[in-house]
Amino acid sequence: MSVSKKERAILRELAKQVAEIAALPVQQETISLWKASNGLKPVRPMVMIDQVCWHEMDVDRELALQTQDAFCQGLETTLRRTLYSWKHMRVDMVVEPVIDIPKVIQGTDFGMQRVERTAATDPLNDVVGHYYIDQLQTDEDLHKIQMPDVVLDEPATAEAEERAHEILDGFLRVRMQGALPAFAPWDAIVQWHGVENALVDLMDRPAFMHRMMSRLTDAYLAMLDQLEEKGLLGFGQRTIHCTGAYTDELPAEGYDPRRPRARDLWTYGMAQIFAAVSPAMHQEFELDYAARWHSRFGLVYYGCCEPLDTKIDIIRKVPHVRKISMSPWVDVDRGAQRIGPDYVFSRKPSPALLAGDTWEPEAVERDLRYTLERCNRHGCPVEFILKDISTVRYQPQRLWEWADVAMRVVGGSCA
Q: What is the dihedral angle through the alpha carbons of 313, 317, 318, 324, rounded to the nearest 10 degrees?
């Protein structure tokens, strides 16, 4: 399907602007800073902003789409958000002269879909409340978790590649990107079994939960085997779970860009519901299974919203772990002391500071400086990753100012 001349012209102009930014020397300078940080020899703390409430961000119609075709709108959204972020809240983002077009890969959903009720306070916000309906009540139900049959939709992938080249050639390189999988089985389990059910069954039916976790882990690994065997893994990661992924340690020796292997890549894992369980239970029901996944990959980012400051000892057992998430609910000093110089303290500043009735940049600065001081005290490499931003009260300038404050704290440029 060809692209209309009008839509092609719109997208090529945006692509030209992105290409001009990508050509700036600062891009390579920032990549070098990320490599130093990820190599545990940071020049300074790095800063990223991700998972933005884009429906609240538009200023002067900078994000307003002008194309109509669905494929073109996907490209336009990516290009406009890149330009917007660079202009207003770039922090340590890197802009490359590349657009990733995902290969159309089917059969990675384990045969399950969530059944739920949702509740929203803002109809424009895709962040909503969820009530999950239990689909995994018996051992027989566990067979609903199916072993994947991973297939590349070659016609759909070829069509997307052709259209992307038609639009972007001459400005940005088109890269057909494969899967970049992560291991988050407990996120899936709570969506299929329910949050309360999962936590209660860890106590009342531990053998049942082990059978569930064992089957799902086998399914994850079967998916990974097929992605690897069929050459469907991605490559050239720029981010890993909202942080910079640039490193001199990957890919591994023997790398073939036509057939990437798990050991050439970062992966990430999490068990967010395990904020409510002990280190011993976290080890037994998550990390003992996760080790089979993480051992396959080159580098690992572990954790998300769950507070992990009391669980560093068990996370040290995660194969190839390099970054550990330190969510807004951790004791910063305890986490930094226990991590020390061995991993990146991936600090997640609280997005709630952007959501209050009043905006207080002074509170943001105090929070960031406290974390930085504690990490410096313990010789702990630190990065600041602002994410899960569900609202800025329709005042995007709050986020822009957060970026300026953060870069001032870490000693980076705000230009």
A: 20
Pairwise CA distance, residues 92 & 246, whole Å: 12
The whole-angstrom distance between residue 185's C-alpha and the CA centroid of its chain comes to: 15
Question: Mean pLDDT throughout 104-116?
Answer: 91
The token duo for 276 is 């409510």
- Residue range 300-333, pLDDT digits in tens: 999 999 999 999 999 999 999 999 999 999 999 9
pLDDT band at 65 (very low <50, low <70, confident <90, very high): very high
- Helix and strand numbers (H, E) in the chain are 13, 14
Amino acid at 215: R
Q: Is 272 helix (H, G, I), strand (E, B) or coil?
A: helix
The answer to whether the beta carbons of residues 8 and 167 sit under 8 Å apart is yes
- Answer for the pair 286, 186: CB distance below 8 angstroms, yes or no: yes
Tens digit of pLDDT for each residue in 366-393?
999 999 999 999 999 999 999 999 999 9
- pLDDT tier, 415 (very low <50, low <70, confident <90, very high otherwise): low
Contact in structure between 76 and 10 (CB atoms under 8 Å): yes
Q: Which string of DSSP letters, residue by residue, matches 164-215?
A: HHHHHTTTSEEEEE-B---B-HHHHHHHHH-HHHHHHHHHH-HHHHHHHHHH
Which amino acid is present at 146?
Answer: Q
Show the domains of the chain with their CATH numbers. Answer: 26-59+103-151+173-410 (3.20.20)
| C-beta of residue 174 within 8 angstroms of C-beta of residue 146 | no
68: CB partners within 8 A, 6+ apart: 7
Separation of alpha carbons 80 and 90, rounded Å: 13
Backbone φ and ψ for 218, nearest 5 degrees, come out as -60, -40
